Amino acid sequence: MPSQPRKDLETFANPQPERDYTIRIRVPEFTCLCPKTGQPDFATLHLEYVPDRLCVELKGLKLYVWSYRDEGAFHEAVTNRILDDLVATTRPRFMRLTAEFNVRGGIYTTVVAEHRDPAWQAPTMVQLP
């Protein structure tokens, strides 16, 4: 197998560090295990962030997400752990991770976790006519 799952994330230099802009990434094939039953849990991860000096590299992110496939984790814990790892690696101005878990026993779970650099001010949204 040419690739293996791994917990380390890779980055590259932000090509426009002087500008606030948003990167949106959708990961539709996240899988972990229910820590109570051992059954698989499936989710779509939605990552949105305003980079500072670094951006997350997508192949590394794919291998990182893959590393959770055989781990037991509660939805709330795994969402916050992934956000913490991404923030520690990229040091963004702002980052939001939304994890939409598939139905389990008739219940859907969505967990939203955010990070905001205290020195960063969000730009005012422009409303066009």
Can you tell me about this structure?
With 129 residues, this protein is of the alpha+beta class. 19% of the residues lie in helices and 38% in strands. It has a four-stranded antiparallel sheet, with helices on one face. A two-stranded antiparallel sheet has the order 1-4. The longest helix has 16 residues, at 75-90. The protein is globular and about 45 Å long. The termini are far apart. The mean pLDDT is 95.
Radius of gyration from CA coordinates? 16 Å
**Largest β sheet strand count, sense and barrel closure:** 4 strands, antiparallel
Low-pLDDT runs of 5+ residues are: none
User: So how many helices?
Assistant: 2
Please, what is the average pLDDT? 95
Order of SSEs, N→C? EEEEHHEE
Tell me the number of strands: 6
Instruction: State the separation between the terminal residues, measured CA to CA.
Output: 53 Å
Strand ordering within the main sheet: 2-3-5-6
Percent in strands: 35-45%
Q: How much helical structure, as a percent, in the residues?
A: 10-25%
Q: What shape does the CA trace take?
A: globular
Q: Which secondary-structure class do the elements indicate?
A: alpha+beta
Keywords:
129 residues, alpha+beta, four-stranded antiparallel beta sheet, two-stranded antiparallel ribbon, 6 strands
